[in-house]
Amino acid sequence: MAESTPDLRALPKPRAYDELLAHTRAVLEGIDDPIAAMATISALVHHAFGHLWTGFYRVAAPELLRVGPYQGTLGCLEIPFGKGVCGAAAREKRTVLVPDVHAFPGHITCDARSRSEIVVPVTGPDGALLAVLDIDSDRPNAFDDDDRAGLEALVAWFAEKRG
Ligand code: SME
């Protein structure tokens, strides 16, 4: 049933992401509100995989990200483009996968338990950056190309729905 929050950790990642996208679409059916969608996506991704922090930073001004809907402990409020992992993904408009956050120069520590991270840009139909989806894990090397593909598909659906 669409209103549940499934834990998908028992599934192989590609199947987990397929189910996550189908579930997200079902939950958000008929809802045309990007904040509601970002909040719902954050909750579903977070609990599907048991992440440490899952949420969006939105482009709030030129070259500036501001925290949006998320799940986890207190996030940084603002991140300039180019700073930390989120800022790198925003500036380069590409997914950044960090197996060991301690080895990433300039990593911004919001929760000291964070060990690895993936940040996926959200771009509109015209290619402009709208936001980034930031996910932190307390496990080293938690993210791989399956996460990249699954999350990029999820944010592409969100961006298309929103646009
Ligand atoms: N670690 C991020 C900052 C955001 S928090 O993890 C929520 C970074 O370096 O971009």
Give a concise summary:
It is built from four helices and six strands; from the N terminus they run H-H-E-E-E-H-E-E-E-H. By secondary structure, it is α+β, with helices and mostly antiparallel strands. The mean pLDDT is 95.
Task: List the SSEs and their pairings.
Elements: H1 13-27, H2 34-49, E1 53-61, E2 64-71, E3 78-80, H3 84-92, E4 96-98, E5 116-123, E6 129-137, H4 145-162
Antiparallel strand pairs: 1-2, 1-6, 2-3, 4-5, 5-6
Bound molecules: methionine sulfoxide (SME).
Descriptive notes:
With 163 residues, the protein is of the alpha+beta class. It has a single domain, classed as GAF domain (Beta-Lactamase). It has a 6-stranded antiparallel sheet with strand order 3-2-1-6-5-4, with helices on both faces. It is globular. The two termini are 27 Å apart. The structure holds methionine sulfoxide. Methionine sulfoxide binds next to helix 3 and strand 6.
Which key features would you list for this structure?
163 residues; alpha+beta; Beta-Lactamase; six-stranded antiparallel β-sheet; globular; binds methionine sulfoxide
